[in-house]
């Protein structure tokens, strides 16, 4: 892809139809052939290779919160490992890439000069950093630190605790993560208004029966997700025997693992309410958005069923069918 992009820009730089087009293409070729671009390209590639799985998972419309927790944890660990041990491998790949595509490699022991930074440092007389320090610390470490900071901000200690406690309900591997103390703490600390004091006290006793019953049930012992467990409790009618556990599982399943749905909603608003539809009333706008966003559900509804429901709401003068 790099070779093809550089070749296309070189052709445009020599055969472009206008001076501006040829000039922009020439600047693009110079940028592609610069060492800083190649280095940044490899840094971004290394980080995205680690974070891609988490990004793809969090873009799903529905996401198992326990699986999301594990993805966040592994992503943080891999990013930290890249920061601690990834410099040598990255530098080797960058050198090899530059040799293949004839990109000039600067002397890494030479002092790094930045016009803006040098102006700021004139009065402070700080030691001049080397090229290696600039690329390793100011770019490589800084880029990874920003990613780790973003993950730590989005998944705070309290959010992480919630995810860890929620994993105690996960049925995977024969309910090996089942923990009565963690489940009671989950209900007590994170859902205080959804359970009365009496229900919180009774939950531990209900969990003791649940622990001896559910993991050996033929239809429930080989489940892998909370969603499967919730459906299994309904089909086997075990939810009637363990209503508090069933309620807690449903509450955990409603946790948003990301802001992907909200971001889609805002994107849909920009598409639906345009300049030509700027006078749309809020009620109609809200109903329109529901149909637009939930297209998969809307496609299952027939026109006749919609008309029948419309007639059942109140008497209508117009005949629609």
TrEMBL record:
This is HAT C-terminal dimerisation domain-containing protein. It comes from the Eukaryota. It holds the Pfam family Dimer_Tnp_hAT. Residues 240-284 form the HAT C-terminal dimerisation domain. One of its GO terms (molecular function) is protein dimerization activity. InterPro entries: AtLOH3-like, HATC_C_dom.
